[in-house]
Amino acid sequence: MLNRVHHISIICSSYEKSKVFYTEILGLEIIREIYRKERQSYKLDLALNGVYIIELFSFPAPPPRLSRPEGTGLRHIAFEVNDLNVVIEKLKKHNVACEPVRIDETTNKRFTFFADPDDLPIELYEK
After folding, report:
1. In terms of domains, do 57 and 1 share one?
2. 1 and 57 assigned to the same domain
3. Which one, 23, 40, 56, 91, has least CB within 10 Å?
4. pLDDT(65) > 80
5. What is this structure's pTM?
6. b/e code 89-99 from CB counts within 10 Å (16+ = b)
7. Could you tell me if 88 and 113 are in contact, meaning their C-beta atoms sit under 8 angstroms apart?
8. CA gap 123, 114 in Å, rounded
9. How high is the pLDDT of residue 73?
10. CA distance 62 to 54
11. 3-state helix, strand, coil in the chain (%, to 5)
12. How many structural domains does the chain have?
């Protein structure tokens, strides 16, 4: 019935901050950027390794939402990485703090969390 996840949609409070975070810090590629005048909204389509994964929206004065991993709704976005320590160090250079590294009790794989500019939790999961 379902083939794959098509994309993840994120509404940000500061379009410029989030655009820099997702493209320059996390390294996602811009597929297209559209300004929708009637909605006073930007839509930025982003890819990882050539695969469309995130659409980033800006809207005038979006309401805040609880977004910690244990809150109701979207729990988090997770990215697989080859070497967790290398990625954590790169994020530190951009003043992005990661939580202490944990071990998945089921897979024995290492993982950690950090937050985007709107405090959306993002997980790094070591391959």
Report:
1. yes
2. yes
3. 40
4. no
5. 0.83
6. eebeeeebebe
7. no
8. 7
9. 64
10. 18
11. 20, 40, 45
12. 2
